Amino acid sequence: MSQVHRKERSLLSTLIFGISAVTLVAAIIYAPGETFQASGQGLTIWWRIVFPALLPFIVLIEIMLASGFAHGVGVLLEPFTRKALGLPGSAGWILPLGITAGYPAAASAAAALYRQGKISAAEAEKIVSTSHFCSPMLIIVVIGTGFLGHPRLALVLLIVHWISGLAAGITLHLLSPHDRSTALPTKSAEAVTSDQIDPLSSSFGFRTALKEMERARLQDARGFGKMLGDSVSSAVQTLMATGGFILIFAVIIHIINTALPNIIPHSFVAGLMEVHLGTFAIARDILSPAICIAFLGAALGWSGISAFLQVRAILGPAGIGGRIFLIHRIVHGAYAYVLTLLLWKPFTEWLPGTLPAFAAIRETESSGSQYYDINSFLPNLQLVSSWLETQLWLFLLLVIGMLGFSLIWRNRSQQ
Known about the structure:
By secondary structure, the protein is mostly helical.
């Protein structure tokens, strides 16, 4: 009976995908000019923002894994990540990576660790869910400076985005304590058993970290040239897939809004589908400042169906599920919306002049055309490169901070 039910579900899924594909092709043929313009917006976002912002980080992921550095850091992060998030230390460095680089960098790193046998499928899905953030460059430069015309508002969005994402991860961890029992033992745990040394010893941590780095480097066994070539090739392949998702969802958003012009708000459709185009549409809506920023925070936490499918495209071939990830996105978006409304008044008092400037921008836009070209709101390459340097430093500082906190935690546990 269950096999019949699965076959029926598979047939229904095939039918839905087939009808959707035919509808999409028909819509493109019906209005090729407008469709080309919509896909051009998606291509501009990918080429000017996503590609340069993510390429160095995804290459860095491969190098860190091949050199063994990531595995050594994971040993030192074990006390903190296991206690706070129920994750092995080998996946702990993915959290600052996701915070600074944005998606789908965390998914690429988690899938690589899973293929190496360092974490289980459940742990990989959980760390991807917890580490899925939008990059600071998108929030500060693109949304704050470009879309809203007021960088101070981006600070509100960034702080709320980080707090709500971490709160969602801790919440889901507390609601699923059974994950600890199903987690696979990490290499560091195996090393503890073989060496029969107190796992809370600080000397044990550094010595085992060096051993794990050497073990991972020898297992990889690639030269630097081969490793760098493979890293760049893998990064470009991942980013090409990401660009394809952004382009196709730009077309889907345009088709839905054309077919249902007065039924569903344009900003709701865009925010549901794709985060870049969604935040642009929300920022163009004539809303009160608090509601506008709250909707932007919710859209960033949700991050769109496009982001979900991008992550699934990376995790799916490795056999990693996506149910927890989807739940996490809903909780993240809900936390961000509520937290923005709760903190809006304190933030505006802390940042004087924000509300008058925001009101002036909305008044200017409401008197103009209802159509806005996204290209004129995107930053130039010089600004993107300067913020890329900032994100790299932020990633380094977060890793150092987590290491310090983990060592303090270990020392306090000894007392």
